[in-house]
Amino acid sequence: MLxxxxxxxxxxxQDSSINSIPKIANHKTMPANKLHPKTLVIERKAxxxxxxxxxxxxxxxxxxxxxxxYLQYPRGTYTAARTVQKTSIMSFDVHxxxxxxxxxxxxxxxxxxxxxxxxxxxxxxxxxxRDTKILETVLVPMVRKxxxxxxxxxxxDVFGEEQETKVSILIGYDFKVHxxxxxxxxxxxxxxxxxSVKVELRGHPRSTAAAKxxxxxxxxxxxxxxxxxxxxEVVLSDAATGTIYEGLSSNFFTLVNSDERPFIQTAPPPxxxxxxxxxxxxxxxxxxxxxxxxxxxxxxxxxxxxxxxxFVTSTSRLVLPxxxxxxxxxxxxxxxxxxxxTCITFPANQPHPIIERIRARVREHVVSRAFxxx
Length: 374
Fold this sequence. Notes:
The chain is an alpha+beta fold. The protein is built from 9 helices and 17 strands.
């Protein structure tokens, strides 16, 4: 658990010694040979009745990634958002609804308890927050306080460019101390890679994709550690059928060639989690009269050359074109469909004009979807 200090002593918080800073594995966005930038974590805790003390904020200033932040707490639901012009959060209403929905879908029980019915103790604490309107009244003040203190205390321009902030939020219940936990993590958000990226096809679909459960953060670590150093994302699929689902932290789209006109194809919710940027893409496509089909992309179609392009979407990436989808040499599950080492490639420096148009329009929509915090 992090060393935590009260808000009253925040001004006196000093950096941890270099030996106490956690090692960050495979943190792709960090500049070479630099530690993770200073971050800020703010917590609110409530007893089992779920009623927060309005003044009960606890703040710490560690150097940890969002994944490390999630995993230091008991199991909970989570979401990752981005600021807009440093004062607002993009699609915050969607994040609120997703947190409330995930809390409803998830059942909280003590460790090693296999009951299908949620513990009455956890239900008493969490039920209020399963209402989006109530959740907003509790969460917004904490995020506002966290953003305010973060901008006072944390170095900026870590990546040498004007940057926004990544805001990660977790809600869970700690059975050991009988407390409801709500916490948020603030860290610099690097811009997405320029141009297009490489992805790998690994792993299997999630069992409960519709809920953002921190158990998934733990499960996906093995796949993150396996991915190549030049790989931006790992994409999940059903190896038996070739159907493609989503990335570890993104939605996956293809642009499919057609006799009439190209169309966008992406796996349908609830088989995948509908991310905030995925929803922006859907809205942009409707405005631009680009057909979207909520159906599983098929690996066989990509190998046959039926895709004009592909891209992934997420809070940090927005719309990020793919230049290559690779099936690694150590990934043998797809051998019935294609040999290991197979690559599906697209023009590296010139994504299809339709993908470029979607990318540009999503960037424009970011500001219009901003929820004012400060």
